What does this fold into?
Amino acid sequence: MAKAAKRKTGKAKAGPKIIKGLVGVYADTTAVSKVMPETNSLTYRGYAVQDLAAKCEFEEVAYLLLYGELPSKSQYASFKKKERSRRALTRSHQNVIAEFPKSAHPMDTLRTAVSYLGTTDMAWGGEPARKDLDRAIDLLAKIPTMIAIDYRLRSGKRPIRPRTNLSMSENFFHMCFGKVPPTEVIRAFNVSLILYAEHSFNASTFTARVITSTRSDIYSAVTGGIGALKGPLHGGANEAVMEMLQEIGDPNKAEAWLRRAMKTKRVVMGFGHRVYKQGDSRVPTMHACLEDLTAWSGDTKWIEISNVLKKIMIDEKGIHPNLDYPAGPAYYLMGFPINLYTPIFVMARITGWSAHFLEQNADNSLIRPLSDYHGPKQRRLKK
Ligand code: COA
It folds into this structure.
């Protein structure tokens, strides 16, 4: 057992064994993805994620995760057609988004916008898989539109209609900024979505599976997943990384900043992982995209700061960066405001959550662990 797992696994006095944070616990089987910390690798449905990132569009990977196999040419064409035809939101859905306070975090507005969709489609767990697959494609198609409409409105701009002749990545830039950037930017964005799509029983996916296990519906599971992803120890880390890099602000100040952080035991965002202890399998692929974006933009500051922190953290603490570390500055160089980074993560992870919803539903057992009571002894109510 890893050192961290041992430390967190305490035995209560004469009580049951507590595995705090469920460190090292296998909660179920899955055929969606395999995380292999011993070889720093990750597969989706058996395919290495690096190969998928190098050779596939995000939509193909979405199909793979949802259906279990890569699509044939005709399957892919009809999947894309369906996804593209579902991008637009109803007028009432847009009105709901328009009502959100402009000061709200986009993860909060997205969580509510997804939940709203659930009010328009009465759904329960345990329905035939084809119905939930259809809902999953609807969520995949509409979540980028929800994010973009909210972003445009909070920036005081009119929403831009989705286009059906663009890929998901191209269309997202079109809906946010009214234009599609050059190929290298689209490629990097597409890769980031593939890398963010799925990662076994992480906190948000497990949340979604817990909700699914009560025979609740896919919208509830995804809404719960968004709530879990928002936290900076999970998906929110990609925003926190960029805020940290901005706080440092200058490559010449990076080492001193980090030494202070280490001294004060400050958590360095974008480092560490519950499962990977020798490096995150997805980082080299995303770091290469960050290098491409740096070359494309000519803005070298962020990669310079990040390289200083990375070297010291690995050499002196043995703590490696996770995917959020290169993803944060990559999204910055693509031109997105920082508070959109975790919503972009949702655009990708909706595929993994949906695949796990389907898997949990197909072989369900209510997820309901036990707790060891440590409160006051039973006492008489004197009233
Ligand atoms: N900065 C500084 N120290 C860190 C660290 C970080 N980002 N991540 C882990 N450590 C240290 C811990 O303080 C601990 O040190 P100790 O043994 O001296 O107490 C040791 O490394 C083991 O870490 P632990 O907290 O047991 O790991 P975990 O599995 O519980 O936590 C995370 C994993 C992801 C929650 C944690 O690494 C973290 O908070 N990272 C920053 C947030 C982040 O990037 N999240 C995205 C994850 S994909």
Observations:
- The CA atoms of residues 9 and 22 lie 9 Å apart.
